[in-house]
Amino acid sequence: MENKQKPLSKNQKIILEYIQKNKKPVKAYSILSNVQKKGINAPPQVYRALDKLIEIGKIHKVESQNSFVACKTSDCETPHATAFSICDSCDEVSEINDPKLFKYLLDYKDNSGIKFDGYNLEFFGTCKSCETS
Amino acid sequence: MENKQKPLSKNQKIILEYIQKNKKPVKAYSILSNVQKKGINAPPQVYRALDKLIEIGKIHKVESQNSFVACKTSDCETPHATAFSICDSCDEVSEINDPKLFKYLLDYKDNSGIKFDGYNLEFFGTCKSCETS
DNA sequence: ATAATTATGTTATAATATAACGCTATACTC
DNA sequence: GAGTATAGCGTTATATTATAACATAATTAT
Known about the structure:
2 copies of one chain form a homodimer.
Chain A: H1 10-21, E1 26-27, H2 28-35, H3 43-55, E2 59-62, E3 67-70, E4 81-87, E5 93-95, H4 99-106, E6 118-125, H5 128-131
Parallel strand pairs in A: 4-6
Antiparallel strand pairs in A: 1-3, 2-3, 4-5
Helix pairs in contact in A: 1-3, 2-3
The structure holds a DNA duplex (30 and 30 nucleotides).
């Protein structure tokens, strides 16, 4: 029952590596300017790779920031059920990987009784280091 | 212990009314083109009003769509703790107003023990009417 | 009445994202 | 392995979303 993964294409690899190098989420055009030396010249090349990487769960999009961050769980099985905490003052983002929260939300039924395939949750607050300064 | 509400300004009123008329979320530039006859000419006028309306909780932003929707609870007390369900196939959005979910999330503590001031949660799935077609 | 704050109107531009086209590489299937 | 289907590439142009900056006017607070 191995997890069959197609190999990434050249551009996908370049862009994933760049995102993984950064702890903080990065913006599409910042990715672009940082990988131009590797032969990636134009926005569509970046956005195509981003779309694919999101689809397969290697990265996630932080919607409230239009930024992109690598998935922390090595073999992301729930690419479309993500939770982040975001610091209002320094914009630090960290992925929340909590099975209980995850289960609670994927089991959640709205009042019409439907369950959901995925979710994106972004928590806002003040991070530890900003709080003490 | 009344809820002291400052009256809205002219542009804020115009834009809020337009958003409230629409059941579906609306986009900023679509708002603009629909309120031009009322004397609103340029994007900053729209975005300024949107920012304010969000701040006071009259509307919410649907981050994954860059769209804006009126708050359903007449006197929104939690402008920054919002949950929506979004249909993947027709893009319909509805606000989820569930005190239990609300409490669960506002009480949620991440592994560093911090609580959050607010959150934005967007659930994805297939709505009833899309499912049966 | 004055000062402080909030909102307005405007022009210009920044930042984010996609359409469309022709071509190339990879994988699939017979 | 030839043929075909699928996914990816490179490129140009353009669409969409959002803000900077500045001068003025209205509102609110002291």
